[in-house]
Model the fold of this input.
Amino acid sequence: MKMSKMLLMAVALAASTTAVLAADDYPSKPVKLVVGFPPGGPTDIIARVIGQSLSAELGKPVIIENQGGAGGVIAAASVVKAKPDGYTLLVSVESAQTRALAMNGNLAYDQVKDFTFIRKVARQRSLIVAHPGVPVSDVKGLIAYLKARPSEVNTGGTFGTSSHIGGMFFDMLNDTKMTFINYPGGAQPIIDTIAGTVQVGFFTEATVAQHVKSGKLKALAIAGSERSPGLPDLPTVEESGGKLRDPSPWFGIVGPAALPPAVVKKVGDALDAMMQNKEFVAQLEKIGASPIRGSTADKFAKEVGEEVDFWNKWAKENKTPLAR
Done:
Protein backbone atom coordinates (compact mmCIF):
# COMPACT_ATOMS: atom_id res chain seq x y z
CA MET A 1 0.00 0.00 0.00
CA LYS A 2 2.80 2.35 0.97
CA MET A 3 4.59 1.52 -2.30
CA SER A 4 1.42 2.35 -4.28
CA LYS A 5 1.17 5.75 -2.63
CA MET A 6 4.83 6.42 -3.31
CA LEU A 7 4.39 5.37 -6.95
CA LEU A 8 1.40 7.69 -7.38
CA MET A 9 3.34 10.57 -5.85
CA ALA A 10 6.27 9.88 -8.15
CA VAL A 11 4.00 9.82 -11.22
CA ALA A 12 2.35 13.09 -10.15
CA LEU A 13 5.72 14.72 -9.54
CA ALA A 14 7.00 13.56 -12.93
CA ALA A 15 3.89 14.92 -14.69
CA SER A 16 4.22 18.22 -12.87
CA THR A 17 7.92 18.47 -13.74
CA THR A 18 7.18 17.65 -17.39
CA ALA A 19 4.53 20.38 -17.54
CA VAL A 20 6.87 22.95 -16.03
CA LEU A 21 9.68 22.02 -18.42
CA ALA A 22 7.27 22.16 -21.38
CA ALA A 23 6.13 25.64 -20.29
CA ASP A 24 9.73 26.79 -19.88
CA ASP A 25 10.49 25.55 -23.41
CA TYR A 26 7.44 27.35 -24.82
CA PRO A 27 6.98 27.84 -27.69
CA SER A 28 8.68 24.90 -29.36
CA LYS A 29 6.25 24.74 -32.30
CA PRO A 30 3.77 27.00 -34.14
CA VAL A 31 1.04 28.71 -32.10
CA LYS A 32 -2.54 28.73 -33.39
CA LEU A 33 -4.40 32.02 -33.02
CA VAL A 34 -8.14 31.47 -33.43
CA VAL A 35 -10.31 34.24 -34.90
CA GLY A 36 -14.08 34.06 -34.43
CA PHE A 37 -14.98 35.72 -37.74
CA PRO A 38 -14.49 35.05 -41.45
CA PRO A 39 -11.55 36.51 -43.40
CA GLY A 40 -11.77 40.14 -44.44
CA GLY A 41 -13.58 41.55 -41.42
CA PRO A 42 -12.12 43.87 -38.76
CA THR A 43 -11.24 41.08 -36.31
CA ASP A 44 -9.46 39.08 -38.99
CA ILE A 45 -7.53 42.15 -40.18
CA ILE A 46 -6.27 43.09 -36.74
CA ALA A 47 -5.59 39.44 -35.83
CA ARG A 48 -3.16 39.16 -38.73
CA VAL A 49 -1.33 42.30 -37.64
CA ILE A 50 -1.11 40.96 -34.07
CA GLY A 51 -0.13 37.48 -35.25
CA GLN A 52 2.71 38.73 -37.42
CA SER A 53 4.28 40.75 -34.61
CA LEU A 54 3.64 38.08 -31.98
CA SER A 55 5.40 35.54 -34.21
CA ALA A 56 8.45 37.81 -34.40
CA GLU A 57 8.53 38.22 -30.61
CA LEU A 58 8.05 34.51 -29.82
CA GLY A 59 10.35 33.26 -32.55
CA LYS A 60 7.80 30.75 -33.86
CA PRO A 61 5.05 30.97 -36.50
CA VAL A 62 1.63 32.17 -35.34
CA ILE A 63 -1.01 30.59 -37.55
CA ILE A 64 -4.39 32.35 -37.97
CA GLU A 65 -7.38 30.00 -37.93
CA ASN A 66 -10.80 31.48 -38.78
CA GLN A 67 -13.77 29.87 -37.03
CA GLY A 68 -16.55 32.28 -37.94
CA GLY A 69 -20.07 32.25 -36.56
CA ALA A 70 -22.36 33.56 -33.80
CA GLY A 71 -20.37 36.74 -33.21
CA GLY A 72 -17.25 34.84 -32.17
CA VAL A 73 -19.04 32.48 -29.77
CA ILE A 74 -18.26 29.36 -31.82
CA ALA A 75 -14.53 30.09 -31.76
CA ALA A 76 -14.55 30.90 -28.04
CA ALA A 77 -16.40 27.68 -27.24
CA SER A 78 -13.78 25.78 -29.25
CA VAL A 79 -10.81 27.38 -27.51
CA VAL A 80 -12.06 26.66 -23.99
CA LYS A 81 -11.91 22.95 -24.87
CA ALA A 82 -8.34 23.14 -26.18
CA LYS A 83 -5.39 21.74 -24.25
CA PRO A 84 -4.11 24.51 -21.93
CA ASP A 85 -0.55 24.46 -23.19
CA GLY A 86 -0.40 27.83 -24.94
CA TYR A 87 -0.50 26.47 -28.47
CA THR A 88 -4.14 27.47 -28.97
CA LEU A 89 -4.95 31.11 -28.24
CA LEU A 90 -7.96 33.26 -29.08
CA VAL A 91 -8.40 36.82 -30.29
CA SER A 92 -10.83 37.93 -27.60
CA VAL A 93 -13.69 40.26 -28.63
CA GLU A 94 -16.57 41.78 -26.68
CA SER A 95 -19.34 40.02 -28.58
CA ALA A 96 -18.10 36.62 -27.36
CA GLN A 97 -16.25 37.60 -24.18
CA THR A 98 -18.55 40.10 -22.45
CA ARG A 99 -21.93 40.28 -24.24
CA ALA A 100 -22.53 36.68 -25.27
CA LEU A 101 -24.62 35.60 -22.26
CA ALA A 102 -26.69 38.78 -22.36
CA MET A 103 -27.38 38.21 -26.06
CA ASN A 104 -28.05 34.50 -26.05
CA GLY A 105 -29.39 33.59 -22.62
CA ASN A 106 -27.55 30.28 -22.75
CA LEU A 107 -23.84 29.84 -23.31
CA ALA A 108 -21.57 26.80 -23.51
CA TYR A 109 -18.83 28.51 -21.51
CA ASP A 110 -18.31 30.92 -18.63
CA GLN A 111 -17.06 34.22 -20.07
CA VAL A 112 -14.59 34.68 -17.20
CA LYS A 113 -13.85 31.36 -15.48
CA ASP A 114 -13.23 29.30 -18.63
CA PHE A 115 -10.41 31.52 -19.91
CA THR A 116 -6.89 32.58 -19.02
CA PHE A 117 -6.59 36.30 -19.72
CA ILE A 118 -3.24 37.50 -21.03
CA ARG A 119 -3.52 41.06 -22.39
CA LYS A 120 -5.82 43.55 -24.03
CA VAL A 121 -3.94 44.58 -27.16
CA ALA A 122 -5.71 47.18 -29.26
CA ARG A 123 -8.83 49.20 -29.89
CA GLN A 124 -10.25 50.14 -33.30
CA ARG A 125 -12.13 53.29 -34.16
CA SER A 126 -15.57 52.99 -35.73
CA LEU A 127 -17.19 55.26 -38.31
CA ILE A 128 -20.77 56.00 -39.20
CA VAL A 129 -21.01 55.68 -42.96
CA ALA A 130 -23.83 55.89 -45.47
CA HIS A 131 -24.49 54.91 -49.05
CA PRO A 132 -23.75 57.94 -51.29
CA GLY A 133 -27.40 58.03 -52.31
CA VAL A 134 -28.59 58.83 -48.79
CA PRO A 135 -29.23 62.62 -48.94
CA VAL A 136 -27.43 63.62 -45.73
CA SER A 137 -23.94 64.94 -45.04
CA ASP A 138 -23.72 64.89 -41.26
CA VAL A 139 -25.18 63.31 -38.14
CA LYS A 140 -27.80 66.00 -37.61
CA GLY A 141 -29.04 65.40 -41.12
CA LEU A 142 -29.03 61.63 -40.54
CA ILE A 143 -31.10 61.95 -37.38
CA ALA A 144 -33.69 64.10 -39.16
CA TYR A 145 -33.74 61.71 -42.13
CA LEU A 146 -34.26 58.67 -39.88
CA LYS A 147 -36.97 60.31 -37.78
CA ALA A 148 -38.91 61.05 -40.97
CA ARG A 149 -38.57 57.39 -42.06
CA PRO A 150 -38.90 55.09 -39.02
CA SER A 151 -37.83 51.49 -39.80
CA GLU A 152 -37.37 52.33 -43.50
CA VAL A 153 -33.57 52.66 -43.38
CA ASN A 154 -31.45 49.52 -43.11
CA THR A 155 -28.28 49.17 -41.07
CA GLY A 156 -26.24 45.99 -41.22
CA GLY A 157 -23.59 44.04 -39.35
CA THR A 158 -23.09 41.00 -37.14
CA PHE A 159 -25.41 40.57 -34.16
CA GLY A 160 -23.70 41.51 -30.92
CA THR A 161 -20.64 43.15 -32.48
CA SER A 162 -19.87 46.86 -32.68
CA SER A 163 -21.59 47.07 -36.09
CA HIS A 164 -24.83 46.03 -34.35
CA ILE A 165 -24.37 47.67 -30.93
CA GLY A 166 -23.39 51.00 -32.50
CA GLY A 167 -26.64 51.29 -34.45
CA MET A 168 -28.72 50.04 -31.53
CA PHE A 169 -27.35 52.69 -29.16
CA PHE A 170 -27.61 55.37 -31.86
CA ASP A 171 -31.33 54.62 -32.19
CA MET A 172 -31.88 54.60 -28.44
CA LEU A 173 -30.01 57.82 -27.69
CA ASN A 174 -31.24 59.84 -30.71
CA ASP A 175 -34.85 58.60 -30.78
CA THR A 176 -34.53 57.05 -34.23
CA LYS A 177 -35.42 53.60 -35.54
CA MET A 178 -33.43 51.72 -38.18
CA THR A 179 -33.96 48.12 -39.34
CA PHE A 180 -31.01 45.88 -38.54
CA ILE A 181 -29.92 43.21 -41.07
CA ASN A 182 -27.80 40.48 -39.51
CA TYR A 183 -24.77 38.94 -41.29
CA PRO A 184 -22.50 36.07 -40.16
CA GLY A 185 -19.43 38.33 -40.37
CA GLY A 186 -16.79 39.32 -42.88
CA ALA A 187 -17.07 42.07 -45.46
CA GLN A 188 -20.59 41.36 -46.81
CA PRO A 189 -22.41 44.09 -44.83
CA ILE A 190 -19.94 46.66 -46.19
CA ILE A 191 -20.39 45.33 -49.73
CA ASP A 192 -24.16 45.64 -49.31
CA THR A 193 -23.83 49.20 -47.98
CA ILE A 194 -21.81 50.12 -51.06
CA ALA A 195 -24.52 48.49 -53.19
CA GLY A 196 -27.32 50.30 -51.33
CA THR A 197 -29.06 47.24 -49.87
CA VAL A 198 -27.94 48.65 -46.52
CA GLN A 199 -28.06 52.43 -46.26
CA VAL A 200 -26.20 53.15 -42.99
CA GLY A 201 -23.35 51.29 -41.31
CA PHE A 202 -21.34 51.40 -38.09
CA PHE A 203 -18.06 49.88 -39.24
CA THR A 204 -14.45 49.98 -38.14
CA GLU A 205 -12.18 52.47 -39.85
CA ALA A 206 -9.94 49.67 -41.10
CA THR A 207 -12.71 48.11 -43.16
CA VAL A 208 -14.25 51.23 -44.72
CA ALA A 209 -11.59 53.98 -44.92
CA GLN A 210 -10.57 53.00 -48.47
CA HIS A 211 -14.20 53.06 -49.60
CA VAL A 212 -14.72 56.48 -48.02
CA LYS A 213 -11.66 57.88 -49.76
CA SER A 214 -12.77 56.41 -53.11
CA GLY A 215 -16.27 57.83 -52.77
CA LYS A 216 -18.04 54.47 -52.58
CA LEU A 217 -19.22 55.30 -49.07
CA LYS A 218 -19.95 58.59 -47.34
CA ALA A 219 -18.46 59.09 -43.86
CA LEU A 220 -20.69 61.05 -41.49
CA ALA A 221 -18.80 60.89 -38.20
CA ILE A 222 -16.34 59.09 -35.97
CA ALA A 223 -18.33 56.85 -33.63
CA GLY A 224 -16.02 57.57 -30.71
CA SER A 225 -14.66 60.27 -28.44
CA GLU A 226 -11.65 61.30 -30.56
CA ARG A 227 -11.04 62.16 -34.20
CA SER A 228 -8.97 59.89 -36.40
CA PRO A 229 -5.45 60.81 -37.56
CA GLY A 230 -6.34 59.17 -40.86
CA LEU A 231 -9.51 61.26 -41.31
CA PRO A 232 -8.73 64.44 -39.33
CA ASP A 233 -11.55 66.52 -40.83
CA LEU A 234 -14.25 64.01 -39.86
CA PRO A 235 -15.98 65.09 -36.62
CA THR A 236 -17.12 62.82 -33.81
CA VAL A 237 -20.83 62.09 -33.30
CA GLU A 238 -21.01 64.48 -30.35
CA GLU A 239 -19.22 67.22 -32.28
CA SER A 240 -21.89 66.74 -34.95
CA GLY A 241 -24.78 67.21 -32.53
CA GLY A 242 -25.68 63.57 -31.96
CA LYS A 243 -25.43 61.12 -29.07
CA LEU A 244 -23.73 57.72 -29.03
CA ARG A 245 -22.16 55.25 -26.62
CA ASP A 246 -18.75 54.52 -28.13
CA PRO A 247 -19.00 51.11 -29.86
CA SER A 248 -15.32 50.99 -30.84
CA PRO A 249 -14.22 47.39 -30.27
CA TRP A 250 -11.23 46.19 -28.26
CA PHE A 251 -9.19 43.07 -29.02
CA GLY A 252 -7.24 40.93 -26.58
CA ILE A 253 -5.43 37.62 -26.32
CA VAL A 254 -6.76 34.82 -24.11
CA GLY A 255 -6.31 31.06 -23.80
CA PRO A 256 -8.24 28.23 -22.18
CA ALA A 257 -8.41 28.14 -18.39
CA ALA A 258 -5.36 26.90 -16.45
CA LEU A 259 -2.62 28.02 -18.83
CA PRO A 260 0.77 27.57 -17.11
CA PRO A 261 1.99 30.84 -15.53
CA ALA A 262 5.25 30.56 -17.50
CA VAL A 263 3.28 30.53 -20.77
CA VAL A 264 1.14 33.49 -19.68
CA LYS A 265 4.30 35.41 -18.82
CA LYS A 266 6.03 34.63 -22.12
CA VAL A 267 3.03 35.64 -24.23
CA GLY A 268 2.34 38.64 -22.02
CA ASP A 269 5.95 39.81 -22.21
CA ALA A 270 5.84 39.42 -26.00
CA LEU A 271 2.66 41.50 -26.23
CA ASP A 272 4.14 44.14 -23.93
CA ALA A 273 7.19 44.38 -26.18
CA MET A 274 4.90 44.84 -29.18
CA MET A 275 3.31 47.87 -27.52
CA GLN A 276 6.71 49.57 -27.65
CA ASN A 277 7.47 48.50 -31.22
CA LYS A 278 7.07 51.51 -33.52
CA GLU A 279 6.47 49.30 -36.57
CA PHE A 280 3.63 47.43 -34.84
CA VAL A 281 2.04 50.68 -33.64
CA ALA A 282 2.32 52.11 -37.16
CA GLN A 283 0.60 49.02 -38.57
CA LEU A 284 -2.23 49.51 -36.08
CA GLU A 285 -2.59 53.15 -37.06
CA LYS A 286 -2.88 52.17 -40.72
CA ILE A 287 -5.98 50.12 -39.88
CA GLY A 288 -7.56 52.74 -37.63
CA ALA A 289 -6.47 51.17 -34.36
CA SER A 290 -4.38 52.14 -31.36
CA PRO A 291 -2.44 50.02 -28.86
CA ILE A 292 -3.75 49.44 -25.34
CA ARG A 293 -0.70 49.94 -23.15
CA GLY A 294 -0.49 48.99 -19.49
CA SER A 295 -2.78 45.97 -19.71
CA THR A 296 -2.04 43.01 -17.42
CA ALA A 297 -3.57 39.57 -17.07
CA ASP A 298 -5.30 40.50 -13.79
CA LYS A 299 -6.49 43.87 -15.06
CA PHE A 300 -7.85 42.30 -18.26
CA ALA A 301 -9.78 39.65 -16.31
CA LYS A 302 -11.21 42.27 -13.94
CA GLU A 303 -12.34 44.49 -16.82
CA VAL A 304 -14.04 41.58 -18.59
CA GLY A 305 -15.88 40.64 -15.39
CA GLU A 306 -17.11 44.22 -15.01
CA GLU A 307 -18.26 44.35 -18.63
CA VAL A 308 -20.09 41.03 -18.29
CA ASP A 309 -21.97 42.40 -15.28
CA PHE A 310 -22.80 45.63 -17.13
CA TRP A 311 -24.24 43.90 -20.19
CA ASN A 312 -26.24 41.33 -18.21
CA LYS A 313 -27.74 44.07 -16.04
CA TRP A 314 -28.33 46.40 -18.98
CA ALA A 315 -30.09 43.73 -21.04
CA LYS A 316 -32.31 42.73 -18.14
CA GLU A 317 -33.29 46.28 -17.18
CA ASN A 318 -34.00 47.44 -20.71
CA LYS A 319 -35.66 44.26 -21.96
CA THR A 320 -33.87 44.83 -25.28
CA PRO A 321 -33.38 42.29 -28.07
CA LEU A 322 -30.15 41.38 -26.26
CA ALA A 323 -32.17 39.83 -23.43
CA ARG A 324 -33.75 37.03 -25.41
